[in-house]
Design goal:
alpha+beta; four-stranded antiparallel beta sheet; 17 helices
């Protein structure tokens, strides 16, 4: 496990001194998306020794495990009328019709069979009395479609996938930070980075690179991720390599994060799973009002996440929040045995903090949770750079303007399978290797830059400057946005960039070096968020502007971000494709959740 007190002692800093790792396929990121991709590659006949999965954390310790509430798939356990087309329709509706319909249908169609496959692999799903995979309500879902393992679904999913990958002998390197993708003439050659424990530089000579490195929600002051993950690595690496980004302005604020002033800074923003509301949890303001009756009398606490998050933010802003800056989430009307069975991790967490969920409410407030945007990819996850793929939260297209709860885990396994199969099929018919001499030359130049950064003795602490980025995005591109705030945010980002060029770093194995690398990637994504949010002069999904409060038909377009010929950020738009006839029929049918079935 990486520690806070790593030092830079006795570490070689010669840019020409590096280790070379040769693989056919390099998977960057070891959460569910990366693990599923590697599993599929082996099951499609690729020798495990031709694959390498790398991650910044220990194996099995990825952000996936913090996704607690469930994973979507139209099994119809309780509601047999549900099917994949209604799942797709719910996803498009929740996404403000900015989703790529083809990608949405890919996920919705594949998930029932994938849930059963996970079950076969030993995923400990919660069960009905009849022994079937149980399913619960999640916000904005027309039917009970979210399969779950108590309230530890992500943890159980990742454990299942890691165990399966180990059974297939998939190699893994942990504590590796990839800081540069190397490309030449529109194709990938590999990647460059360093071992975070030893400081050793590493070149990954790979025909195919799969980015499964997460999203960018922890670039906000209050967020549900750990500080050293979801800092925008995947999107920033792809962008700097020449790929396009899309929909980056859309950041989902989960309605229910823990409130640090009550539970301590360690827990500030940590997720209180949507499963609490899915199992009947109710929201109250400090006056004891169940305030969602004003905002969404039909869907109540299980309306779309953006609706509930803005409602909570408004209650707090108008003085009806708690003294700790939150509202109350109460499930104490359920029995203690029900809570302990259905929400065991939440019950245990709050018990350890001195709160009995069976007797009293918990305090919550919105927290940055998920970036809907990411890297633009085709139907099998490939970017416009030949041999470079992006999947999971690193990719764009599935979620549009707002993510349907339970779809994040679904996307990871669905596109892990799709991308793994596509890469295996391609490798079976063609050789796609690149020029290794170019790779090593580019890597050595990058290592020279890294050596200078590791040895820099400037003015500013990297972690402090990274926190300035987080505060900036929270205040200027948060739940509520406007032109003045976004414009001033971009100006302040330029000033932060100046401080980022004058850092004090403590050597290549120090945490400050890691934060310095995070900062460089974060600045790219932060600019894309601010520019995209300023460009989109409407309110749609998770993007809400007080100066443009309505949805505009003219803005049913995706904003695409790319580097121009001089390295500046350029924004264009792309049209939305049409759903298939069967999904359009499901949209026309107007299915929607009726919260009051829970009462």
């Amino acid at each position: 496990m990486r520690t806070e007190n790593r030092t830079g002692d006795a570490v070689p800093l010669d840019p020409a001194d590096y280790r070379v790792v040769e693989r056919t396929v390099l998977v960057v990121g070891a959460g569910a998306a990366g693990a599923q991709t590697a599993i599929e590659l082996v099951e499609q006949g690729i020798d495990p020794e031709e694959i390498l999965v790398i991650g910044k954390q220990e194996y099995g310790d990825a952000h996936t495990k913090w996704a607690r509430g469930g994973i979507n798939g139209a099994l119809g356990t309780h509601d047999p009328e549900d099917d994949w087309s209604i799942h797709a329709a719910d996803t498009l509706r929740e996404g403000g019709y900015l989703n790529d319909p083809e990608k949405v249908e890919t996920v919705a169609k594949r998930m029932p069979a994938l849930l059963r496959e996970l079950d076969d692999w030993g995923m400990p799903f919660s069960r009905t009395n009849q022994g079937e995979i149980d399913q619960r309500y999640f916000g904005a879902q027309s039917f009970r479609r979210t399969a779950f393992a108590g309230d530890h679904t992500g943890e159980s999913l990742l454990d299942t996938l890691v165990e399966r990958a180990r059974d297939l002998d998939v190699p893994y390197h942990e504590n590796v930070f990839v800081s540069r993708l190397v490309t030449e003439r529109g194709r990938t050659l590999g990647a460059a980075g360093h071992d975070m424990e030893t400081g050793e530089f590493v070149v990954f000579d790979a025909d195919v690179v799969v980015l499964a490195a997460g999203g960018y929600a922890s670039l906000y002051r209050r967020h549900s991720s750990r500080d050293d993950e979801n800092t925008g690595d995947g999107p920033a690496l792809a962008y700097e390599a020449g790929a396009e980004l899309m929909d980056v302005e859309f950041v989902q604020f989960h309605p229910t994060g823990m409130v640090g002033d009550r539970y301590g800074d360690e827990w500030d923003g940590r997720l209180v799973t949507e499963a609490v509301r899915g199992e009947g949890g109710r929201l109250y303001n400090v006056d004891g009002e169940r305030f969602m009756e004003r905002y969404s009398p039909d869907q109540m606490e299980l309306d779309a996440r953006d609706v509930v998050a803005r409602a909570i933010a408004r209650e707090i802003a108008e003085g009806r929040g708690t003294e700790n800056g939150g509202v109350y989430l109460d499930i104490s009307h359920r029995s203690r045995s029900f809570i302990e069975e259905r929400l065991p991790r939440m019950y245990e967490r709050f018990s350890d903090l001195g709160v009995d969920m069976a007797e009293e409410p918990v305090e919550v407030a919105p927290t940055a949770h998920y970036g809907m945007g990411g890297v633009t990819v085709d139907s099998v996850g490939q970017t416009r750079i030949d041999g470079l793929y992006a999947i999971g939260e690193t990719m764009a297209g599935v979620h549009g303007a707002n993510r349907l709860g339970g779809n994040s885990l679904a996307e990871t396994v669905a596109f892990g399978q799709v991308t793994g199969r596509a890469i295996a099929a391609r490798l079976a018919t063609e050789s796609i290797g690149g020029d290794s001499d170019v790779l090593y030359d580019r890597a050595e130049r990058h290592f020279a830059d890294l050596a200078m950064l590791a040895d820099s003795n400037g003015t500013h602490d990297p972690r402090t400057v990274l926190d300035e980025v987080r505060e900036l995005l929270w205040s200027r591109a948060g739940i509520i946005r406007d032109e003045e705030g976004l414009a001033s945010g971009l100006a302040e980002l330029d000033r932060i960039r100046g401080r980022a060029n004058d850092l004090a770093v403590g050597g290549p194995t120090s945490r400050s070096f890691e934060f310095a690398l995070d900062l460089g990637l974060a600045l790219v994504v932060a600019e894309a968020v601010l520019r995209g949010a300023r460009e989109r002069t409407e309110s749609r999904g998770a993007h809400y502007r007080t100066d443009y409060p309505d949805v505009s038909p003219d803005w049913q377009r995706n904003i695409v971000v790319e580097r121009d010929s001089v390295g500046a950020m350029r924004l264009t738009t792309a049209p939305i494709r049409t759903p298939s006839a069967v999904v359009q029929d499901a949209l026309n049918a107007g299915y929607e959740l009726d919260y009051h079935q829970l009462e």
